[in-house]
Amino acid sequence: xxxxxxxxxxxxxxxxxxxxxxxxxxxxxxxxxxxxxxxxxxxxxxxxxxxxxxxxxxxxxxxxxxxxxxxxxxxxxxxxxxxxxxxxxxxxxxxxxxxxxxxxxxxxxxxxxxxxxxxxxxxxxxxxxxxxxxxxxxxxxxxxxxxxxxxxxxxxxxxxxxxxxxxxxxxxxxxxxxxxxxxxxxxxxxxxx
Length: 193
What we know:
The chain is of the alpha+beta class. The protein has a single domain (2-192), classed as Umud Fragment, subunit A (Ribbon), CATH 2.10.109.10. The chain has helices at 2-25, 52-55, 177-180, and strands spanning 27-31, 46-50, 65-69, 102-109, 114-117, 123-125, 128-130, 156-158, 163-167, 183-184, 188-192. It has a seven-stranded antiparallel β-sheet. Strands 7-6-5-8 form a four-stranded antiparallel β-sheet, with no helix packed on it. The mean pLDDT is 87.
């Protein structure tokens, strides 16, 4: 009897170890909580993301959907805005804090890209107007939705080295780089398959 209980405990331990190793090295399952990626990804949809691509340092591409650590400050006002520091703010020094919420957004800008969002909601990357087929109604920066309209500070900038500019596909419901700045690459956790 004791031998079978010990065998069961060992099997359970091995399974848990393999699961933890697997999600930390290869595949990270995530559940979307909000509507910021709608219609591409619906609320409460489960997605599998590729952790291995980040661990091995593979290059991220414009259009990739990534998970990343939630910034500490989600909105920077005009008074707080520093045009010389356009990176999202994090209150810890640990890369990939396991206890912080992870967000899912699309990469719009890569290092050294010049991102501009005009008053009439058009996105320009390096001076070229971008058509985004995945954005409902074709709008890029429209305000409204369920949130108070805000003045976005990060809508005309050069993406710094080792960072990316991200936005949700449902721009009226998304808190993203427009309000908190660029995401450092070391805060990116995984890439959607």
